[in-house]
Amino acid sequence: MSGGLRVAADRSTGVAVVTLDRPAKLNAIDTAMAGELRSCWGGLRFDDSVRAVVLTGAGERAFCTGIDRDTRVPQPRSPYMVDDPLLRVGPKANDLWKPVIAAVRGMVCGGAFYLLGESEFVVADTSATFFDPHTTYGMVSAYESVYMAHRMPCGEAARMALMGTAERISARRAYEVGLVSELTEAGGAVKAAVRCAEVIASYPPEGVQGTVRALWAAKEAARAQAFAQAPQLIALGNLPPERQAELFTGRRTEGHRVR
């Protein structure tokens, strides 16, 4: 697949590795990559030779840093309608019920939580750090916070969302609170995730996919109700784009705390 996404499938094991491949942009998602992700998940639905997926990011600096700041998405004036370009980038949003394991190194922030939120579990190496910059730049963390409130204790999700860029969660802390299910040495996340994926892919796929669907159903209703409020909260709470840009341009490049 061309552009910002690479897909490598091992037919002998039934595992596909999907790589966000914009390392110079910290694997931020632009409009083109968002489209590629939707096409990728749609294609994997029909590929019976792939029974489990590992999702990772290229390079050492970041798994994904959310939406590319250069991406411009026109918005309706109504507070009841917000077009979010990341709402359809995850596997579940595209009706893929094959298990997806996220393999993380480096920074994970903002819109990256759409992808982590729709993965079955997360494997991270010791370089991983997690933070949500929205509040720092005058933006509402809505969808991201909903996803993370379902993946970690609510107080931890709240602290991450409200502290913005002032604080980052270390890989060790993310493991302690359950956001990360396995912590590896530096550079070892993909290998560990593939090992898990190969085991899962060796099982009868009907039972695996039914289990994935059941796990998702356990939180689907609450998530849908929360998502229904997100467009209004974003429209009412976000600063104008030009003011957000000013805050982003004037951001501090040092001084954050890692815990």
Automatic annotation (TrEMBL):
Q: Can you name the source organism?
A: Streptomyces glomeratus
Name the chain's protein. Enoyl-CoA hydratase/isomerase family protein
